[in-house]
Amino acid sequence: RYRVALGTGIEVDLTATARTGFATFRFPDRTGYLAFDVGGGATDQSSVSVTASGPAELQGSATDAGFCGGPSSPTTHFAARFDRPIASFASWGEDGLVQEGVASRRTINTGGALLGFRLPPDRSLRVKVGVSYVSTTNALANLVAESSGTWNGDVLAKQARGRWNRALDRIRVGGGTTLQRRTFATALYHSLLHPSIASDANGEYRGRDGAVRTAKGYTRYTNISGWDTYRTQMPLLALLEPRVASDVVRSLVEGAAESGSLAKWELGGGESGIMVGDPAPLLIGGAWAFGARRFDTGAAFAAMARAATAVAPGPFVYPSHATPLDGSRWGAFVRRPGLDPYLALGYVPLDHGNGFIWGPAATTLEYALADFALGRFGRATGHGGAEFSRRSSNWRRLFNPATGYLEPRLASGSFPARYSHTVENGFVEGNSTQYTWFVPHDVAGLSRLLGGERASIARLDRFHTDLDSSHLAPHAWLGNEPSFGTPWLYLWLGAPWRTQAVVRRAVNTLFRPRPAGLPGDDDLGALSAWYVWSALGLYPAVPGVGGLAVGSPLFPSVTIRSGLGLLRIEAPAARSDRPYVHGLTLDGRSKATTWLSVSSLRGRRTLRFDLRADPARGRVTARPPSFPRG
Fold first, then answer.
1. How many CA atoms lie within 13 A of 25 on its CB side?
2. Dist CA 629 CA 445 (whole Å)
3. What pTM value is reported for the model?
4. How far apart are CA 389 and CA 374, in angstroms?
5. Which domains does the chain have, with CATH numbers?
6. What values do phi and psi take at 496, rounded to 5?
7. Residues 468-527: pLDDT tens digits?
8. How deeply is 216 buried, as exposed, middle or buried, from its count of CB atoms within 10 A (0-12, 13-18, 19+)?
9. Is 350 in contact with 361 (CB distance < 8 Å)?
10. Is the distance from CB of 552 to CB of 500 less than 8 angstroms?
11. H-helix segments, 41-171
């Protein structure tokens, strides 16, 4: 529920159901006006329509003009009902012309309706709005199905609060400060906001091929930001809500059957093509590893393997003129651009001439990690995948022994002369200094190339002197995904106290429960999920692997109710300034390790930490695993 008093003297009270919104407005006098800015939003609209469809009803739709230059242009339909009849109606278009009594159905990128109402003595106006990706008819049906029984916002708010309390109650924290508990609850809430439900109350949804279909036995989801969420948000969702995560994966797999390819960044049921690499194996493999298993693994593996082996013919021009892999509506999208040289050379060259490939070096690293996850998923589900596991070591082809960095490489095999390690050239939202650490599946192998554990630790120390830099700095940028895992790398180097210190510094200084309280774009819960994991003292450090790196918990007590069972985390001495682990037990048995498999946490388990203010430098712990062969 959200309430706000506007400077105009209007009071606003908002709540929601799964597919509808409910608003109560209280005006300063008995005449009220509402502007439905149908063409408004974060992106431009290619067309807008709005009409008064009844005495107290408004219907319309808005078609997106594309997201970040991508081809996805979903249409969102809405139906609104008011508890008072509409007294006056006007519409406007991008020319600003108000047309009294005329519904706007022009092709415009902005527009809406201005409605006037005569209000009762309490000066209130209530509005219900249903939305749908299928039709205004379905939008109205969603409204009827989910909120037709009441005009009482308190009732709907109570229902919404109950649903969210059940979701948030899966992790209970005890102790800590009010600010810490509020920050944690905010982060957990943000972690569970996405993906979005795409199927209507009757099960209908608009498929990736544009056809209206019916989801049978599952809820269809969309707004799936693969590159952003595979690291943190999807493992958390799979752990806490395995059925929801399974439906998200099934949505991806069904979408591939409809369109010919798994979505990279699905928006409104269509492919936006945004970001880099091939995140589907990492997203799906991570979901499987953390307990989301109610989907067709054979179909999932086949779709992922096809994307990892099928080279698109002809030139690739991103994003709107790509060579289709099939004839579907969303087929104009090459799943792995640059796959042909990647298969031939083991990397995507910086000077590859086959059209636009965003960040060939970052693309190579992402493909190698995706191959790693695909190989593990294939083995775990009995579908093979050895060839992908072999390709997971392709990251090594970018290591320049002359400089000690992972760098873009030319088709000739040479590295660019006088290359700067703090420019974005060849990378995506980061630079060579930051991406050199992006080998989560073989940290031990990376450390050897960097000169061994001692040299790697010293280099990581310099890297973490600033935790919130930028894509053009030689330091960590924990507000963006490429740096998410770097504080945890010390565990592989035998220096867990450094991970404990850096993660705690980030938790203490970079996150606050207020506007602009995050160090970067939340990216559909990815950054918030990083905080949740870090505050728990656990982290899914190797995408596609069912294991957790062990740090130190922020709170004295935590209870996690998940698909695995019940996990209690006890750290009686936990405080902001006590991040250092001097002892760890699992069900009373001492564990000299910084890695726990997901399977070891199944059932009813108690994880207990001995935390102190001084680092336990001499304590020997088993390192997390590396996977040099996939």
1. 24
2. 11
3. 0.95
4. 8
5. 2-167 (2.70.98.10), 171-612 (3.30.2080.10)
6. -60, -30
7. 999 999 999 999 999 999 999 999 999 999 999 999 999 999 999 999 999 999 999 999
8. exposed
9. yes
10. yes
11. 136-147, 153-168
